[in-house]
Amino acid sequence: MPARDTITHTMRIATDFMFDTLANEGGFVWFYRADDLTPYGELKARESMIWVEPPGTPSVGLALLEAHKATGDSYYLKRAGEVAAALAKGQHPSGGWNYFIDFDPEGLPAYYDEFFSKCWGWQEYLKQRDNATFDDYSTTEATRFFLRLYKATGDPKHKAVLDKALDFILEAQYPDGGWPQRFPGAEKDHDYSAARTFNDDVSYDAIQVLLEAHEQLGEERFHAAAIRGMDFYLKSQLPAPQAGWAQQYNGDLKPVWGRPFEIDTVSSTQTVSNILQLVEFYGITGDPRYLAPIPSALDWLEAAQIQGAKGYTHTCFYEMETNRPIYIRQTGTTIDDVAYSLTDEKEGCYPYAHEVNIDVSYYRDEYARVAARSPEEAMAFYRATKEKKTLPEDIKGGHLAVALSRTQQTSEGIAAIVGGLDSRGGWRDEVTQMNPFQPFTAPPEKMEAYIVGGYIARMYRLINALNTGL
Known about the structure:
- This protein has 470 residues and is an alpha+beta fold.
- The chain has 15 helices and 15 strands.
- The chain has helices at residues 4-22, 57-71, 74-89, 108-114, 138-153, 156-172, 202-217, 220-236, 268-285, 294-303, 360-371, 375-388, 398-406, 411-418, 452-468, and strands at residues 31-33, 39-40, 49-51, 100-102, 132-133, 182-183, 196-197, 245-246, 248-249, 266-267, 317-318, 325-331, 339-343, 429-433, 445-451.
- The strands form 5 sheets. Strands 8-10-11-12-13 form a 5-stranded antiparallel sheet. A 4-stranded antiparallel sheet has the order 2-1-15-14. It has a two-stranded antiparallel sheet with strand order 3-4.
């Protein structure tokens, strides 16, 4: 494996390149074309934009804080301060964040009219909204960064941003414990963004950030709100025999539609996610209430297996009462004529989690192992497991997941990362970008790019090498 000095030198070169060549006021998008450095977030970005949604700007900041801990080099705190300044400029007055920040807000309406509103595969970008989002970890990841930055620095200017963000998370929580996808004023948009949302870990990550805030700041209000969030899982479980969970709920705790391909019914994928999170809540709290919903949820998952399916066991959505698999049919090829409808036919359906593999017997065995632990044993096991995790603690954002899969935490993998910088000082990867106007009919564009998730993944691999010797 390369020497420690070689690893730290590589980390500095790569970070200098990110900030001196790619950064916009200390912030980042998702990737930059290698040839001309054109910026892309989830969609092609304006030059004045940075991305908050992971793996974007706050994800870079979190990696920098870990680099500082591993090296003791104040350089990384300085760079993290640049990230913080960018995020602070784009914090919504309510305290949260949107998917992205545009430092030229006067030009943004025209970009929506000319581009975003025509990208019909990306419903969340079809109209400009004057609020913040919990979707895809945007607000929670930025809050997590400021929590850890304030812990590292004690700087009151970071505490001011953090306080505003934490107040936003508390204010956005419904009395029943759920969180909307967007806040405040989401109900005025007359769409799914006001629904109590599990999808994309909206509620789960809010709970995680509040638990971290309670641990760091010691304020009971954060712990109480986290427990209310956990209890929402118990309240929102659907009745047997379909004792799973939906992706979104209304105020009566009935399933509601999300995006046009997210149906108002019980969901197998959401049910699996909630089971795993309830197991985690038992480890966090030692409260057996969080295990109680799991057996009936597993019973439903077992009953929902599709007989005769080849290569998969379930689909995402099942009709209420009949428990028949249901799918979405999409017609049209542009934003002007696209339409969605329900169908019993999988052939030709909209490809949203239409083929899912769930090993119910595995989850039954795992539940039995967890349920056999006393509350004290469960909490000790949870703490020990968390301490053993290598960085990143969890994976947020597809580009980061892909980059981690392409880099290995081995001597050979570390050597490849150290030797992989190009003449500019950056790491290049190939990225595929769907056509935003015809995502399922036009071929995607492949390009060489500097991917922010690729930088973060390689930094974490190098940090782990410094921390553990591999």
